[in-house]
Amino acid sequence: MSKVLVIGACGQIGSELVLALRERHGNEQVWASDIRENPGEQLQNGPYKALDVMDRPAVESFIREEGFDHVYLLAALLSATAEKHPELAWKLNMEGLFTILDLAREGAIKRIFWPSSIAVFGPSTPSDNTPQETIMEPNTVYGISKLAGERWCSYYHEKHGVDVRSVRYPGLISHGSLPGGGTTDYAVDIFYHAKAKGNYSCFLSEKTALPMMYMDDAIRATLELMDADADKLKVRSSYNLSGLSFTPEEIAREIKKHLPDFQITYVPDFRQKIADSWPASIDDSAAREEWGWNAHFDLPEMVREMLQFVDEKKLFASENKG
Ligand code: AKB
């Protein structure tokens, strides 16, 4: 049984990953950590530490004191928020990574998971079935930080033998928590609005195809990669990962099969330009060949589950908070 730390545990991925890890390793073995003082109800079933990932001395002394086998470093500013706060995004997305890579180099952590994103690709990347290795010229702050992070992961692995593993997550769709600052958030938002109000004003245009994935698949991918034999893994930057690919128009059509009165309108904002710079679909054959990756959820199944489980009261609660 491994002792595990998840940094950024209160976010969209973290809140579900912690629960999955606690089921595997036991609640007491899996520490959740985030900048918030209190983790909220969902993560109360195990230990929690309030930590600012940019406070290197605090992170170092906590990890050295507790001693962790595996650290999942999820804290980051996503693409849309990062464009509004470029300096903070660069600082947050890079500093925590260096702290964790250095601790692993010194032997204080055995294995790291650090997420990259389809944002590492840019307008000059081939957009359909984007290969694992291709032109990478991201033009967003978030994408630049993720690409730099990938290069550092690969460097620490080659030079210092650090066992760091990563996937390039597509847009993630889940019902556990509301989205937070991404360009692909529309594909989560749409379900809350469909259930609560019967209509949705989409900030991307109807034909914008993007790679997406249902959270169950994303959690499984993360755990499978962390379980894989180290000698099978040839990619130590980050693996392409594919689940679904659809446009706002296509997901709206699927939702209408369940909610025939649902209406969608399109009012693209600054996030359209970010989305236009990203691939439409991803070739994940390296992940399939090297560690047996295979997505399970298709669009109809994902939409069915989301409409079943999304709690639209969360939307009203977040609107009332302002
Ligand atoms: C975002 O939209 O910023 C993220 C991502 C694709 O990494 N969901």
Structure in words:
- The radius of gyration is 19 Å and the shape is globular.
- Strands 3-2-1-4-5-7 form a six-stranded parallel beta sheet, with helices on both faces. A three-stranded parallel beta sheet has the order 6-8-12.
- It has two domains: 4-170, Rossmann fold; 171-213 and 242-321, Rossmann fold.
- α2 (56-66) packs parallel to α4.
- The chain is α/β, with parallel strands linked by helices and 322 residues long.
- The chain is built from twelve helices and 14 strands.
- It has helices at 14-25, 56-66, 79-84, 86-105, 141-160, 186-196, 215-227, 248-256, 271-276, 285-291, 299-309, 313-321; strands spanning 4-7, 30-34, 48-50, 68-73, 109-113, 116-117, 164-165, 167-169, 171-173, 199-202, 210-214, 239-240, 244-246, 263-266.
- β1 (4-7), α1 (14-25) and β2 form a beta-alpha-beta unit.
- Helix content is 42%, strand content 16%.
- 2-amino-3-ketobutyric acid is lined by residues 78-79, 117-119, 142, 169, 171, 182-184.
